[in-house]
Amino acid sequence: MQSLLSRLASLAAGSVAVCTLSLGGVGLSTQAHAQASVLLKHQSAQAVVETVDHDARELLLREANGHLITIEYGSSIRDLPRVNPGDKLSISFVETLGADIAQPGSPLPESTLTTARGYVHGHPHGVIASFRRERAKVETIDLPTHTISFVTDDDTSHVAVLRTKAMRDFLSTLKVGDVIDITRMESISYIIKNDTVTPQNPVAAGVQSDSAAPAAPAAPAAPAAPAQ
């Protein structure tokens, strides 16, 4: 969990990391012959806020089992419900990865960060979601071992072994020289359980959006996942 939070913090600070296509996890769906996505992570936790450091922009949380989690959030993250020491949080982490064949002449994909806030049954609710997008060129394909190598736009080479049916099916549609767009979506949402409010403009069952960055375009076949 902590690594996911750190990556979100890096994006918020304007440092977008290169997304390596290590594909594994739980298969979701395959759309057409040139698109696929998988779910990497979906986990929940209950935690209590230990400390809030506004200068360092860090939260220290303690899970029920005593495990400590540090959340680092960059200056771009704003308009989220404010938490205080002692607050009880219900947290959800989701990470997905998708890939599709880039259309000829299409612009390079852009990474984005979005935030939202609102209320869930009267409890303040915040969401931070990052969409990290890369364009890559296929260099080699080995179908028997489900292995692909590719080069991203920064001239970095990657090798990935695909472990899900959706991604293996996608691999079978590719050929050397194809250009693909890769999208990794990572999100954190939290509900402040001990705080109940009555919004003046009730949105009590949903989330009202407060974008911290341009709205994220729809990710390929469900936002965007690792081969090991």
Instruction: Assign a percent range to the helix content.
Output: under 10%
Euclidean distance between termini CA atoms: 18 Å
Order of helices and strands: HEEEEEEEEEHEE
Q: Report the strand count.
A: 11
Q: Report Rg.
A: 19 Å
Q: With helices defined by DSSP (H or I, 4 residues minimum), what is the helix count?
A: 2
Oligomer: single chain
- Low-pLDDT ranges: 1-33, 202-228
The overall pLDDT, averaged over residues, is 77
Shape annotation:
elongated
User: Largest sheet, described in full?
Assistant: 11 strands, antiparallel
**Sheet/helix structural class:** mainly beta
Please report which band the strand proportion falls in: under 5%, 5-15%, 15-25%, 25-35%, 35-45% or over 45%. Answer: over 45%
Structure description:
The protein is mainly beta. The protein has a domain at 36-192. 8% of the residues lie in helices and 47% in strands. Strands 1, 2, 3, 4, 5, 6, 7, 8, 9, 10 and 11 form an 11-stranded antiparallel sheet that branches. The relative contact order is 0.28. Mean pLDDT is 77; it is low at 1-33 and 202-228. Residues 203-228 are annotated as: Disordered. Residues 212-228 have a biased composition (Low complexity).
Outline the secondary-structure elements.
Elements: H1 2-12, E1 26-31, E2 35-53, E3 58-63, E4 68-72, E5 88-101, E6 112-120, E7 123-142, E8 147-152, E9 157-161, H2 165-171, E10 179-192, E11 207-209
Antiparallel strand pairs: 1-2, 2-3, 2-5, 3-4, 5-10, 6-7, 6-11, 7-8, 7-10, 8-9
